[in-house]
Design goal:
The chain has 173 residues and is mainly beta. The chain has two helices and eleven strands; from the N terminus they run E-E-E-E-H-E-E-E-E-E-E-E-H. The chain has one domain.
């Protein structure tokens, strides 16, 4: 079950430079395994502690505005992100390049998350005031952000191969 209040509105930023997904709140996870690891934020060369890994289901907006009144199908849909790291101290949630295993991302004039098999639009992407592309969650309005303070113009995280081995060692134990 997703978090409520301000934690729900922390942006899920699309980062094509990130090799992993990151969630900042434990309630996002539908499956969770504790894990001690770390990631590096390449936009500010800072290391952050990882407290777990799991699966996150994000309910995203498919349509909005006048289209909602005409649309006969669901207004929202759920996308599933696997191997998401739980990093409570990070600035935002991150949807990294592993999303492309299951979905296509379009960031042209129309910003969409699309089903890789059917090409069907599953969820809308939007730009926040800092210019970062983010997932538009159920109930969110376009152009808004949950990020506060000095927001970087680029978000990028890396989970090193050495750190990934900690997960493999944990699975083997």
């Amino acid at each position: 079950m997703p978090p409520s209040g301000a934690a729900y509105n922390i942006d899920w930023v699309w980062s094509f430079e990130s090799n992993i997904h990151v969630a900042t709140h434990r309630d996002w996870f539908t499956r969770f395994t504790p894990l001690t690891s770390q990631i590096t934020s390449t936009h500010n060369n800072t290391t952050y502690s990882v407290q777990g890994i799991g699966t996150v289901e994000v309910e995203v907006r498919r349509v909005m505005g006048n289209v909602v009144k005409r649309n006969v199908g669901p207004k929202n849909t759920t996308i599933t992100l696997r191997n998401v790291l739980y990093v409570p101290d990070f600035i935002c949630n991150v949807m990294g390049t592993p999303v492309r295993e299951d979905y296509d991302i379009s960031i042209g004039a129309e910003r969409w998350i699309m089903d890789k098999k059917t090409g069907r639009g599953l969820g809308m992407l939007d730009k926040n005031p800092a210019g970062l592309v983010k997932i538009l969650l159920k109930g969110q309005a376009k152009g808004e952000t949950g990020l506060k303070g000095d927001v970087p113009q680029k978000i990028a995280v890396e989970w090193s191969d050495e750190e990934k081995k900690k997960l493999e060692a944990q699975k083997e134990a």
